[in-house]
Amino acid sequence: MNQLLPKPRGKLSENRALNDLTWLRVGGPADYLFQPADIEDLQHFLRDLPAAVPVFPMGVGSNLIVRDGGLRAVVIRLGRGFNGISVDGNTVTAGAAALDAHVARKAADAGVDLTFLRTIPGSIGGAVRMNAGCYGSYTADVLRKATIVTRQGEVLDLSPEDLNFRYRQSDLPDGAVLVSATFEGPAGDPEELHTRMAAQLQKRDETQPTKDRSAGSTFRNPAGFSSTGRADDVHDLKAWKVIDDAGMRGASRGGAQMSPKHSNFLINTGSATASDLEGLGEEVRKKVYETSGITLEWEIMRVGDPLKE
Ligand SMILES: Cc1cc2nc3c(=O)[nH]c(=O)nc-3n(C[C@H](O)[C@H](O)[C@H](O)COP(=O)(O)OP(=O)(O)OC[C@H]3O[C@@H](n4cnc5c(N)ncnc54)[C@H](O)[C@@H]3O)c2cc1C
Q1: What are the C-alpha distances in Å from 49 to residues 1, 14, 72?
Q2: Cβ–ligand 1 contact at 121 (below 6 Å)
Q3: Separation of 309 CA from ligand 1 center, angstroms?
Q4: Which residue owns the Cα nearest ligand 1 atom 52?
Q5: Active-site residue 297, yes or no?
Q6: CA gap 19, 277 in Å, rounded
Q7: Which among 35, 56, 129, 158 is the best mutation to test ligand 1's pocket, defined by most ligand atoms within 8 Å of the CB?
């Protein structure tokens, strides 16, 4: 296949392991990993890549389980050349490889409130694709424009309507790679914004296994369980609660464990395979269904092939 692939200026690696590129540190190799030098390099590569070759854009892998057999695709990972951040008034434009935390900090320095991004460990590409959010704010609330390179190599600007944001989801044309995004945040006092972010980080460390290898929340909070309006029932039903009720806090399989600290966090204790992690997740879904009749939906994306026997 290599002869069929365009020769980019950036780095193209064959049979490249992906485990070191994901937060969970598991997963087999990609057929190819492409790290474009800049937007023109990405455009030319995609334009010249045979249409039948699948493309998978990845961010920093903080919401991914790559299966042990790896990915039959060209994985595209943006790096330097796609991580600039600029602020103009209340408008912040960031490259898709910029880390959410860096964008939040730089915005706060300039008095723009994108503080909710501070505790999300992903990149801007992943934030737009996943409509990342926390503390009641979502990417969809602040996004004004996203720029993509299509699978055919064209640069296109998408509006929030084009992206059709939903809970932890947005629509992108097949094979498109997000290259930058423009946000507009409320004005705030820089010192107050930095203080708020420090408090949010501390709260995270107290309640979530932030030092462990995880991919954040494993399952979405169950839909259809809105508040009854009673004083003692003001929260939607949480995934961690039904996992606790099913007795699965701390459950393990191989090197995978449902974190004793937060039962909706699936962690790699050191030696887990993707199969251990996904298998444990499926066991949790089964136990939760048996105990509460609720079908949990995965929030972590699982991609690639299982290992062949
Ligand atoms: C400790 C921890 C805490 C977390 N807390 C939160 C939280 O509070 N809120 C929250 O929403 N999430 C949270 N997450 C999950 C995760 O950080 C987010 O989903 C994040 O937005 C994923 O970004 P990423 O760059 O890691 O994307 P990846 O995991 O690499 O990819 C996720 C998806 O985005 C797509 N994608 C990534 N980059 C691009 C691109 N340039 N172009 C096109 N598609 C792209 C991928 O194809 C894939 O479909 C947490 C994760 C961890 C490990």
Answers
A1: 11, 15, 15
A2: yes
A3: 30
A4: 216
A5: no
A6: 13
A7: 129
**Contact at 8 Å (CB) between 295 and 271?**
no
The gap from C-alpha 158 to its chain's centroid, in whole angstroms, comes to: 19
Ligand 1 and 210: CB distance under 6 A: yes
N-terminal to C-terminal alpha carbon distance within the chain: 25
Residue in 180, 217, 259, 275 annotated catalytic: 217
- pLDDT of 169-224, one tens digit each? 999 999 999 999 999 999 999 999 999 999 999 999 999 999 999 999 999 888 65
The string of pLDDT tens digits covering residues 114-168 is 999 999 999 999 999 999 998 889 999 999 999 999 999 999 999 999 999 998 8
Please, is 187 exposed, middle or buried when counting C-beta atoms within 10 Å of its C-beta (0-12, 13-18, 19+)?
Answer: exposed
Q: Any idea how long the chain is?
A: 309
Q: How far is the CA of 290 from the centre of ligand 1 (A)?
A: 30
255 Cα: distance to centroid of ligand 1 (angstroms):
23
Q: At what angle do helices 190-207 and 100-109 cross, to 10 degrees?
A: 150
> pLDDT averaged over the chain?
93
Position 221 scores a pLDDT of 85
Q: Are 225 and 242 in contact (CB under 8 A)?
A: no
pLDDT digits (tens, 9 = 90+) for 211-247: 999 999 999 888 654 333 333 433 468 999 999 999 9
Question: Is the minimum distance from the CB of 125 to ligand 1 under 6 angstroms?
Answer: yes
Q: What confidence tens digit (pLDDT) does each residue in 276-289 have? A: 999 999 999 999 99
Residues 7-21 have pLDDT tens digits of 999 999 999 999 999
